[in-house]
Automatic annotation (TrEMBL):
It comes from the Bacteria. This is Flagellar protein FlbD. The gene is ylzI. It holds the Pfam family FlbD. It comes from Cerasibacillus quisquiliarum.
Length: 72
């Protein structure tokens, strides 16, 4: 789970495993796997860093890094 901030300054916690896509449009827009979109104050890079840290915390990081390898 990662903590993010909506544009109205409300804090919320998001299950990072539900993230399908992150875009800067120019506001950071997160699209979830169910199609819901959430706009947050954090930058795209911050969301990626928080998500990566969460994956490491729960032991998913090696699988994510392996899936991202282009050499295979």
């Amino acid at each position: 789970m990662i903590q993010l901030t909506r544009l109205n300054d409300d804090l919320f916690t998001l299950n990072a495993c539900m993230i399908e896509q992150i875009q800067s449009l120019p506001d950071t827009t997160i699209t979830l796997i169910n199609g819901k979109k959430i706009v947050v104050k954090e930058s795209e890079l911050e969301v990626i860093q928080l998500t990566t840290a969460f994956y490491k915390q729960i032991g998913l990081a090696p699988f994510i890094e392996k899936a991202g390898d282009s050499d295979e």
